[in-house]
Amino acid sequence: MDREMPQGKRTVTDDEIINTMLESSDPFHTAPELADMLGVTRQCIHNRLQALDKKGRVDRKKSGPRTVIWWPAEEEEC
Predict the structure, then answer these.
(1) Is 25 exposed, middle or buried (0-12, 13-18, 19+ CB in 10 A)?
(2) How far apart are the C-alpha atoms of 38 and 55, rounded to whole Å?
(3) Angstrom distance (rounded) from CA 26 to CA 39
(4) Which of 7, 17, 32, 57 could pair covalently with 52 via S-S, beta carbons 3.0-4.6 A apart?
(5) How would you classify the pairing of strands 10-11 and 3-4?
(6) pTM score > 0.90 for this model?
């Protein structure tokens, strides 16, 4: 579902983010990768991933000084 905000910026739902992660052949993703896949800004996806993490829908791990990897929480994989 492609929706645009009044400023012309694309938005995505939580389910679109989770489904994109689940449908990918990669086991985890970075925020820039997901931003490119979903056509949104890096800041947008970063904020959304943090919110999904607080809801328990995604997990994350810092894999480098400036790199965080994200994957769907186990209950999302069912």
Answers:
(1) exposed
(2) 20
(3) 18
(4) 57
(5) antiparallel
(6) no
Residue type for position 8: G
Q: Beta-carbon neighbour count of residue 57 at 10 Å?
A: 18
Q: What is the token pair recorded at 5?
A: 């905000």
CA atoms within 13 A on the CB side of 55: 14
| pLDDT by position in tens, the chain (length 78) | 445 444 556 789 999 999 999 999 999 999 999 999 999 999 999 999 999 999 999 999 999 898 999 999 987 655
φ/ψ of residue 23, rounded to 5: -80, -15
The residues, any chain, with a CB within 8 Å of residue 10's CB and separated by 6 or more, are 2, 3, 4, 38, 39, 40
